[in-house]
Design brief:
Length: 192
């Protein structure tokens, strides 16, 4: 009888990638959508200094909220009975990378706190690039590129509305991404 760690070792990387690709992948983008929506509402109704703290707390909690939501999307990211998958580790490393780039945003924010929607908005969107490669689908590249272009443009075009316009754009990109991911998942289900 083979135990689970040995079973994971027996699967090839390509088998693990295919397994990862078959997932719905909705929990984390749902969490990001919700958090950036709340940041935008804070920007609309709260003082900027308070919104800064909402942005820090919110973006820092996206992964935890995603873990929670995954129970309702059928993904259950914390399921200990699921076989280990190398691409889960790569995905979580990508998330950690996105969080570590706060080290770029923080010194800039010390000079200009209104830079945060731009820096955090772009830097935390970078994790979509490796996801796109893992699932062999352009959704992550489209998400990162459109998010970067929109966030940067809005930062310059609407300096007085940075805490509202930039989160709104990020939410819009997430909505499109969720739609594309859902269509992708439905196509996968139809092919089974």
């Amino acid at each position: 009888m083979t135990n689970k760690p040995e079973q994971a070792a027996e699967r090839t990387l390509e088998e693990q990638r295919q397994e990862f690709t078959q997932r719905r992948l909705m929990a984390m983008p749902l969490a990001g959508t919700l958090v950036w929506f709340i940041i935008g509402l804070a920007g609309l109704f709260l003082p900027e200094r308070t919104t800064v703290w909402v942005l820090y707390a919110g973006t820092g909690s996206i992964a935890y909220l995603g873990f929670f939501l995954s129970r309702f999307t059928g993904e259950n990211l914390l399921d200990k009975n699921r076989p280990k998958n190398t691409f889960d580790k790569l995905f979580f490393i990508s998330m950690a990378m996105a969080l570590l780039v706060f080290s770029i945003a923080l010194p800039f924010a010390a000079v200009d706190h209104t830079s945060l929607p731009m820096t955090v908005g772009i830097l935390t969107g970078l994790m979509w690039m490796p996801l796109s490669w893992i699932i062999n689908h352009p959704v992550g590249i489209l998400h990162t590129v459109s998010r970067t272009v929109l966030v940067l443009a809005l930062w310059y075009l609407l300096p007085d509305m940075r805490f509202v316009a930039i989160p709104a754009a990020i939410v819009a990109v997430y909505i499109v991404t969720l739609f594309v991911l859902n269509k992708r998942w439905q196509a996968l289900q139809a092919s089974i």
